[in-house]
Automatic annotation (TrEMBL):
Protein name: Enoyl-CoA hydratase/isomerase family protein
Database matches in InterPro entries: ClpP/crotonase-like_dom_sf, Enoyl-CoA_hydra/iso, Enoyl-CoA_hydra_C
Organism encoding this protein: Solihabitans fulvus
Family: Belongs to the enoyl-CoA hydratase/isomerase family.
Pfam families found in the cross-reference section: ECH_1
Lineage, top ranks: Bacteria, Bacillati, Actinomycetota, Actinomycetes, Pseudonocardiales
Record-level Gene Ontology MF annotations: isomerase activity; lyase activity
GO biological process, one term: fatty acid beta-oxidation
Length: 257
């Protein structure tokens, strides 16, 4: 809470959980209240069996998230941020189900971090991305996965210059999946999330785990780990339901088992 206002909102629409950073007057910057709210929202999503995809976004149309709240950092004389300063999906926060960033406007510094750590990213055509820490003397230990997402020299340029890139450039380098008009961002992201939610849930969870194996393992180890991940999926009821439904000319009824 911030002066009696909820700074992170959680709502569910057709099996999609929307988590919104709601500090538009501060460009949705991350302060302690936002950080706590994001952790709480992720816990709520993890426990919500009816929500199959999480969408992270910011309030308004000017900023997804401008990064850490520099005013609060200055007031607190923050040196090394604690590891729980901001949720990082896959590092200090485990979310097995898919997470999509819906980037509306600026995603700078910690906002870039949030977009980077989501599984997918849909951006409005006015979105901008930048790793601005070099301009204010701060650090980016969270940027380790960046060369896995974009070409290494592009990652180096982003890190060393602090210069922003627009949405189309972000899509060209692979940071963003889709670019849509700002007015269509919510609908386009909801549609993508619903397409994911309509798929076999066990296969979706296993696919997410598989996609990240190669970042941590050798090719041989990754193949072996992938076989272990998918073995119970092949043995599930859903694995029989999919072909059966196709043969019968109907939509499958997934049971998640």
């Amino acid at each position: 809470m911030e002066c009696g206002v909820e700074v992170v909102r959680y709502e569910t629409v057709n099996r999609v959980a929307w988590v919104t950073i709601d500090r538009p007057a501060a460009s949705n910057a991350i302060n302690r209240a936002v950080s706590d709210g994001l952790f709480a929202a992720a816990d709520r999503f993890n426990a919500d069996d009816d929500a199959l995809v999480l969408v992270l976004t910011g309030a308004g149309d000017q900023a997804f998230c401008a990064g850490g709240d520099l005013k609060e950092m200055a007031d607190d004389a923050m040196t090394v941020p604690p590891q729980d300063f901001v949720p990082q999906f896959g590092r200090n926060l485990l979310v097995d189900k898919p997470v999509i960033a819906a980037v509306n406007g600026a995603a700078y510094a910690g906002g870039f971090l949030l977009a980077q750590s989501c599984d997918l990213c849909v951006a409005s055509d006015n979105a901008r991305f930048a790793i601005t820490e070099v301009k204010v003397g701060r650090g980016v230990p969270w940027a380790v996965p960046l060369p896995w997402l974009v070409p290494p020299r592009v990652a180096m340029q982003l890190l060393l210059t602090g210069d922003p890139i627009n949405a189309m450039r972000a899509r060209e380098i692979g940071l963003v999946n889709e670019v849509v008009p700002a007015a269509a961002l919510r609908a386009a992201t909801q549609a993508m999330a619903e397409r994911i939610a309509a798929n076999a849930p066990l296969s979706v969870l296993a696919a997410k785990r598989t996609a990240r194996l190669f970042a941590d393992m050798s090719l041989r180890e990754a193949f072996e780990a992938a076989e272990r991940i998918w073995h119970p999926v092949y043995l599930s009821e859903d694995a029989q339901e999919g072909p059966r439904a196709f043969r019968q000319g109907r939509s499958p009824v997934w049971r998640g088992r």
